[in-house]
Specification:
Length: 249
């Protein structure tokens, strides 16, 4: 199985605090991977390092075959722009421009010509054809998040990192966003890595990676919400038994 992003022995320290502790894993091409774990377990730090937003203290990260540690800041920015898409809990659409302009802004700033046919296909997939000329504030939260997903995919990234993408949404909108992410993986072969606190959301992923104390302590293939909730409860009580490893190395 080829990996879009690989971490080898990645450690991230903040002073004495070890936020990531010698983590080695790969995010496989065309899989939807959820990252779960108690607060402070290192989920955000893992994603920040895996997405080249932050540098590990030691170890290496490879994105699309490129060793991130070998790049200077400018080249890292270009690597992120060309290979990585981001979806945030708070959508992060610019309020003063239309939805359509938001979808292509970062491509245009990078001097790229947006692929209109591809973006049109994505817009249709997320059902926002009649919302393109509106400002983001005129859309519901679910619609704004669906627009943010189109924006993340507009440049055909190798991997999309989604940080609590359903955290601000009601149940129905959250389900639509999760269906959409899963469909992008199953139908288009997109690779998606999603941080979530919600076992039901993580259960829509192919694999769920469970973190505790800066380590990956479980990888559950085709996880159920019940199994994940039980595992998180166990971790909250201090249990660290290591379970069988599935599709994510
Ligand atoms: N910039 C920073 N400076 C100092 N400590 C940090 C910094 N960022 C994270 N940490 C610490 O590193 C550890 C891991 O934090 P991280 O944000 O990765 O956890 P998390 O699992 O994403 O938590 P949450 O679910 O609450 O968002 C925590 O102890 C946190 O306090």
């Amino acid at each position: 199985m080829s990996h879009v992003v690989t971490l080898e022995a990645v450690t991230k320290k903040y002073g004495e605090l070890v936020a990531l502790d010698n983590v080695s894993l790969g995010f496989p091409q065309g899989r939807f991977v959820a990252v779960m774990g108690p607060s402070g377990s290192g989920k955000s730090t893992l994603i920040q390092c895996a997405a080249a937003l932050d540098q590990p203290t030691s170890g290496s990260v490879t994105i699309g075959g490129v060793d991130v540690g070998s790049l200077n800041e400018t080249k890292r920015t270009i690597l992120r722009r060309e290979h990585v898409g981001f979806v945030f809990q708070s959508y992060n659409l610019l309020p003063a421009i239309t939805v359509e302009e938001n979808l292509t802004l970062s491509l245009r700033l990078a001097g790229k010509r947006p692929d209109r046919a591809w973006i049109g296909e994505l817009v249709e997939r997320v059902g926002l054809q009649d919302r393109l000329r509106h400002r983001p504030a005129e859309l519901s939260g679910g619609q704004q998040q669906r627009a943010a997903i189109v924006r993340a995919l507009a440049g055909r990234p190798d991997v999309v990192f989604a940080d609590e993408p359903t955290g601000a949404l009601d149940l129905r909108s959250a389900a639509q966003v999760l269906d959409l992410l899963r469909g992008l993986v199953d139908d288009l072969g997109q690779t998606v890595v999603m941080v979530t606190h919600d076992p039901a959301a993580a259960a829509r992923a192919h694999d769920a990676l469970v973190m505790a104390d800066g380590k990956v302590v479980d990888v559950l293939a085709e996880p159920s919400a019940e199994d994940l909730a039980a595992r998180l409860t166990q971790l909250a009580r201090g249990g660290l038994a290591v379970h069988a490893v599935g599709g994510v190395r």
